[in-house]
Amino acid sequence: MAIQYRLLIVDDDEPFRAELAGQLALTEGFAVDQAGSCAEARDLMRDPYDGIVVDVGLPDGDGRDLCRELRQTGIKAPIIMLTGHDGDADQIEGLDSGANDYITKPVRLGVLMARLRAQLRQFELSDDASFEIGPYSFRPAAKMLTQGSKRIHLTEKETAILKYLYRAGDRAVKRETLLGEVWGYNAGVTTHTLETHVYRLRQKIEPVAGTVTILVTEPDGYRLVRTPKG
Predict the structure, then answer these.
(1) What does pTM read for this prediction?
(2) I need a surface site. Which of 37, 64, 163, 227 has the fewest CB within 10 A?
(3) In the chain, ranges of CATH 1.10.10.10 domains
(4) Which residues form the Response regulatory domain (predicted)?
(5) Fold of domain 5-125
(6) Which of 180, 181, 161 is nearest to 222 (CA)?
(7) SS3 of 150, please?
(8) Residue 227 and residue 206: Cα distance in Å, rounded?
């Protein structure tokens, strides 16, 4: 199962946007939303994204201004700017607006996808990476969950389990898959090892002791409920 990222593509070229979204969903397993304007992007930004691709030329504004706006609101996810201009001044302005990378059109999809993957990997390892899980903010680099002043420290394996389940979205992950991703298919590791780690992790993160609302058991694996009901 591929680890899933949530991406937003903001571009008024609908055929290009659709092709890029389709390739990212098909080859990478990414969940991709699309916007054709700044206004549509703002509406979609109510939910957090792991990465954003923004065209400079949008029908209702400049993509660089949108990038600055997103940074001012506290969004730290990687942003890649697209533009039809290849001058140094244009690239400098794009990067100064808060973009992580700057690619000129016509865009080669393979290159864009590779540079996007690189930015996502780099961000995930940074101290800025934070994901919402239930009532907590999850910071993988710090191996920590926070809720206000509350701090829950995680082990390396607990962090890896949460991170992989988070990337799976609403899908359940089989025990064997999770074992392989977290422990590397070590012949000496059994599903009992995973179950023990999940048990200890639940003791740390479930808001009400004895209940299971965040890290739930499925028939053949586990699933993370990012926003539990109630």
Answers:
(1) 0.62
(2) 227
(3) 131-224
(4) 6-120
(5) Rossmann fold (3.40.50)
(6) 161
(7) strand
(8) 12
